[in-house]
Amino acid sequence: MLGVCYYPEHWDESRWETDARRMVELGISFVRIGEFAWSRIEPSRDTFTFEWLDRAIDILAKAGLQIVFGTPTATPPKWLVDECPDILPYDRDGRPRGFGSRRHYTFSSQTWWRESARIVGIIAERYGRHPGIVGWQTDNEYGCHDTTMSWGPEDLKGFKRWLRLRYQSVDQLNAAWGSVFWSMELNSFDEVVLPNLTVTEPGPASRLDFWRYQSEQVAAYDRMQCDIIRKHSPGRWITHNFMGFTLDFDHFKVGDNLDLASWDSYPIGFVEKFPFSEDERNRWAETSHPDIAPFHHDLYRAVGKGRFWVMEQQPGPVNWAPWNPVPKPGMVRLWTWEALAHGAEVVSYFRWRQATFAQEQMHAGLNLAGLDEWSPGGQEAGRVAEELAALGTLPETDTAPVALVFDYQSHWMTKIQPQGRDFRYEELCFRWYEALRRLGLNVDFVRPGAGLEGYALVVVPCMTEVDEATRAALEAATGIVLIGARSGSRDRTFRFPENLPPGPLADLTGNRVVQVSTLRPGLSDPVDGAVSGAGIRWREYIETSGSVLATFEDGSAALTQKGRALYLACWADEALLSDVLTLAARQAGLSTLSVPDFIRIRRRGNLVFAFNYGTRDWTLPEGAVPVLGETVLRPQGVAAWRTA
Ligand code: GAL
After folding, report:
1. Ligand 1 centroid to 33 CA: how many Å?
2. Whole-number Å distance between alpha carbons of 636 and 369
3. For residues 2 and 68, is the Cβ–Cβ distance under 8 A?
4. How many A from CA of 343 to the centre of ligand 1?
5. Residues 332-375 pLDDT 10s
6. What CA–CA distance (Å, rounded) separates 231 from 1?
7. Which residues line ligand 1 (CB under 6 A)?
8. Cβ atoms of residues 609 and 640 within 8 Å
9. Angstrom distance (rounded) from CA 301 to CA 319
10. Which terminus of the chain is less hemmed in, N or C, by CB atoms within 10 Å?
């Protein structure tokens, strides 16, 4: 169940055999290669130098390793950029983003599609049936380095094409965008401009369409690669390695192309990327916050329709965050087990050996820089391999009792129109997830529109546009449904629903939102009743035909209930959120746990895992007989026991 990312092109050929042998000795079964090697595969147009790669693949395969080939499209070589400058992306200020790092292409460029199809086809044809190749990775981390969006001439062309198809007539476009406002009406599709470089904010509906357009481009581009690979490489699976906290495109749509999802887990780097408080950042600097990696495991399990890998696991300090601490001893092992506990099929470390040169010199590997010598992370990986061998096959992952409806478009819509600067969709979902996990609950992420039957509890932190399928799924849900503020607040074209928010959820919730207030940091609105705490950041004034379970200080409803549907009319602070989710879980008939905030529990079939992110010991529940770890769970420790 372990893998590693390897760059044979970074090391002298005389070392490859030793590398392959030591991988196997460590307990590694999978090796990913190739994803940045274009300049070594095709140093100039139509000149191919595959021989080195043939030898590398043969050596790895002979050693018994199963190879995952990454298509090299994240790094178009210099000759190609010079020949076809129209593949370059543009930043929001309209400047080209040039050659010299990676991801320097726009999904809108038709030249780029042609060139991608060409190189992917040639590689897939050459290696597609090689017995050592078991799977493929398309590209590398779509959207990384802010590359979903591009704002150049090719993007404008593509956007116009997309709009023509979608709206057929410019009158329909004007109507959908509300262009009469501020005299933004257009006389033809030729007059469309990109929604950047304006004096003040461009129209929200046009921005949303541009976002949808870019998101669809990513999925379509990925599908193009998948189709080519499938043609040449029968019987092999395809994945893509997604990034953490990247919400610029709809990952579910890319997931539809794939056999399984994978993601790149850099838990400590993400502590700096996510809007944590400084206190939290300091507290979790060397372990990561206990829900960062799990949040993504559960999300990507959904994106992969039940199947996911960690394609890149942080093995030590990274190089790219503002600060890059060494993980506490034990964390590499803990993260690996935690991914497996969440259902990962494979955890693959990035990277085999720390590079001695270039951009990622300061990034740890399983081996010390340039050497054949295990790093501390490499030693921990070896320990996991031994433990896995001792434990035997892990049970199947089963459905969780709780579903969290996760919607990329709600991120786009709330970013386009935050109304309060700190209304951040990913943060909201993360906090709901964190509160559920602190109750000891397993959580499944569910895409909008998917069926919700069977879940005891369904939570919707926020879903701005509730489409018909999601409305129907929520109404058909058999469990308790908890809906958060701002849900159903806009329609497909960013308009208010005719019946006011929550629009399509009015019947289900019995509510109508008549006013909204956003609260600057430091302000809050106390809530009391069946639950207590405070609303922060966002607060609604609602009328309800349901029952009022808790009120704000002015007496208006904060938490309502109609039948199975609860509605929370604010962004809840920690205390309120914990109370609301406890109440919802109780109504759903779920038994919850109370564990310290540095402990997390996760069930995989009949195996229960516990993880200690803290600085103190924790004792396993009575009767738990550990099959992994010990009864007293030390800091950074992992334990597992079986249940009936
Ligand atoms: C990932 C990327 C890898 C490597 C790694 C460093 O985002 O896919 O190629 O750059 O980060 O942490």
Report:
1. 13
2. 25
3. no
4. 22
5. 999 999 999 999 999 999 999 999 999 999 999 999 999 999 99
6. 27
7. 140-141, 144, 264, 266, 312, 318, 320, 350, 360, 363
8. yes
9. 27
10. C
- Backbone torsions φ then ψ of 447, nearest 5 degrees: -80, 155
The yes-or-no answer on residue 543 being catalytic is: no
- Count CB neighbours of 427 within 10 A: 17
DSSP 352-369: SB--SSSTTTTS--SB-T
Neighbours of 352 (CB within 10 A): 26
Answer whether 0.85 is exceeded by the pTM. yes
354 to each of 97, 315, 371, 374, how far by Cα in Å?
A: 28, 10, 8, 10
CB atoms within 10 A of CB 619: 10
User: What pairing do the DSSP bridges indicate for beta strands 607-612 and 638-642?
Assistant: antiparallel
Q: Whose CA is nearest to atom 5 of ligand 1?
A: 350
**Single-letter amino acid code for the residue at 110:** Q
In the chain, the amino acid numbered 572 is A
Q: Edge to edge, what strands does the sheet with 30-33 contain? A: 237-239, 133-137, 66-70, 30-33, 2-5, 347-349, 308-313, 261-265, 241-242
- Tell me how far apart the alpha carbons of residues 261 and 452 are, in angstroms, rounded to a whole number: 21
CA-closest residue to ligand 1 atom 9: 140
CB 360 within 8 A of CB 15: no
Three-class secondary structure assignment of 408-424: HHHHHHHHHCCCCCCCC
The string of pLDDT tens digits covering residues 563-593 is: 999 999 999 999 999 999 999 999 999 999 8
Give the separation between CA 412 and CA 640, rounded to whole angstroms: 39
Q: Which residue bears the tokens 């994978």?
A: 262
* Residue 481 CA to ligand 1 centre (angstroms): 38
Residue 506: φ, ψ to 5°: -60, -45
CB 456 within 8 A of CB 480: yes
- E-only strand ranges, 6-145: 30-33, 66-70, 133-137
Among residues 312, 345, 426, 540, the one annotated as catalytic is 312
Which of 42, 115, 141, 345 is an active site residue?
Answer: 141
Asked if pLDDT for residue 594 goes beyond 90, the answer is no
Arithmetic mean of pLDDT, 14-42: 98
- One-letter amino acid at 467 equals D
Q: Atom of ligand 1 at shortest distance to CA of 314?
A: 12
Q: Which of 215, 284, 229, 299 is nearest to 258 (CA)?
A: 229
- Token pair of 369, please? 């820089």
* For the CA of 269, the nearest atom of ligand 1: 12
Q: Is 125 a catalytic residue?
A: no
Q: Please name the residues in contact with 589: beta carbons below 8 A apart, sequence gap of 6 or more.
A: 456
By most ligand atoms within 8 Å of CB, the mutation choice from 73, 320, 359, 366 for ligand 1 is: 320
